[in-house]
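REQUEST FORM: STRUCTURE PREDICTION
Request ID: SP-0412
Submitted by: Lab K.M.
Chain count: 1
Length (residues): 728
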Amino acid sequence: MNAPFARRTLLAATAAGVAAAALGGTETARAARPVFSTKPAVDAVRRVAGRRAAAQIHFRAVRADEEYFRISGERGRPVIEGTSPVVLLTGFNWYLKYVLAADVSWDAAQVDLPNPLPAPRTEIRQRANAGRRLFGNDIWTDYTGPHWTFEDWEREIDILALQGYNAIFMPVGMEDVAHRMLQEFGYSRAEALAWTAPAAHRAAGMWQGGWTLEDGGISEADQQRRVKLGQRIAERMRALGMQPLVPGFVGFVPEDFAERNPGAEVADRGYWFTQRMLSWLNPDSAPYREAAARFYAIQRELFGEFELFAMNPFTEGGRSPYPLDIAGRAIQETLQANVPGGIWQMHGWQENPKSEMLTHLDPKTTWIVDFVSDRYSGLDREKTWGGIPYAFGPVWNYGGHTTMGANLGVWNTRYHEWRNKPGSSLDGIALSPEGGHGDVLPLQFFAELAWRDEPVDLDQWMADYATRRYGASDQNATRAWQAMGRTAYRMPADGWHEAQDGLFAARPALDVRTAAEWSPKLIRYYAGEFATALPALLAVAPALRDSDTYRLDLMSVARQVLDNNSRALLPRIRSAYRDGDLDTFNELTASWLDQMRLQDDLVGTIRGFQLGPWIAQARASAGDAGEEDRYVYDYKEMLTLWGNDALADGGLNDYCNRGWQDLIGTFYLPRWERYFATLRTALESGSEPERIDWNAMERAWVADVDRDFTMTPSGETYALAKRVESEW
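STATUS: Completed
RESULT:
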């Protein structure tokens, strides 16, 4: 465990208040005086499990040389002791899962708890084997909740704390640190606010490698709202003993920075696709040191002290205009001069970090988050990164896709192999999805790696998961989740993290193999066995079906079955068209479109899978009517074309595809209807099919910023899932 990290999180939690004295046990005997406040943990329990549970749980704050929680007590008075508020919540969640058969996760919860609460049959003690437990890719806020309110963030922090994550990438409001710094280097407030990527691309544009988009900018009103929101988020995380991972100053500046600051050396880093990358101020220069000093000072004034700083010069490309060994040393020395003990976090992704940049870095204040631990075989991170501490981690989800699946089998064994090998530099875990929510199981499984000393029996883990999702053991639920555990959740390290997306979301073509350009072209598991999970879930005992978790899981599995079916149906449509068989073509394309309509209805039974609420959030966060239109446009564009036509043509169209109501029904479905109509006309007339300008068609949908979408879930999940099973 990294000692400075643990110490700072404990100090932050202590500052939140005074704890009740710890009692009993060899570890707790050392805690004769209050250690930290348990109130933030109690408040979180009240939010996620209700007042009755919060009133019965007794938290004990303890001081120890290692992070751990212990669960004991008696009926009506369960006792959970732990070494920080976030560890107490991790212990509470373990109690929910493995004593009460309850479940709290993204988008749904099953917390039908007994009263009084029982104690465990035997004492439970779990020790953390990883001091750093990070959640969040640098763009996860863009693709998950660019317009979240504090209530959304509060729920997210609670969920992540329950799982045991003690650090979260948090860029909210940080763009104003850059704005205020620029104002001291020759830029007006209006110019600084204009130098801001659009909301659904903001973290990527300003921090993750850095590039510009022509339709950016932020109003003063929304900027101030975001600063206040970021302050509240950081305060809440600190109260729970969690660390925000925030952007540091790597040196990204506007391209005319040198013109306004004589003596500054600013390099052109080239292009990311068609977008000009942000210019790079020479780190080994006085202007860089001056700008960085102001950046860190302003950040501290606005948001308080931080320890973890994300800085990635080459996340996805970029020229290297400076000697990288010197640049790396200068960036780190400047960070240490302004934030003694501050840790420079970098992505292990593509060519980042470049080996030359690591040459002179101090391992004690450097941390690499591996994005591809589960993607390839034969990796040797100690050799690649020269002994720099790193976190085990996958990206797992790209673009916020709603597909189910992950390389759990690889996580289950490889993490422990890497952690225990001689000379290991592994220091932590990091789950780095580009988009959160959608598929809830990987969040839980990955988090448990840090609290187990050896691999689990995956079949048993899936059985336990099924039990807590629905509140009791059920052989059909177990059968369903074990089938998924052998297929979608046990994919190999074959060059991919994520499962395949669905072809309903793809730009129509008879030979299309994926919706997102860089997603798997084939199903990465045996779809036939996965499909057996649907009838098994439908056969779960009626008494266990009345929970949000059951409805969410049933919808997700039925939706995935339809997506997998699309990959079997499209080749048949292609054959009918090429054979000139109009009757079969009409029959199969009608089936395709009916499945899309059914999928739209199915996902519309669950609020988290509806486009309408996300559009409403974009509107609500704007500072004025013009910004409201831009935010809606930007969000719809991110989900579809992603950016301008050049970016879409470069392969980014549908990069962020999702199985959401109204995105399916008003965007994906009309594309396929139009495409099939052109093919039908071609078959009937014996002519070539009409060429469709997809960019123009999609841009018209994006530009319709006044269109309203469904806001309230409707329909019966069970009945619609039953239709999937019986009809398709």
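NOTES: Confidence is low (pLDDT under 50) at residues 1-9, 15-32.
Reviewed by: T.R.
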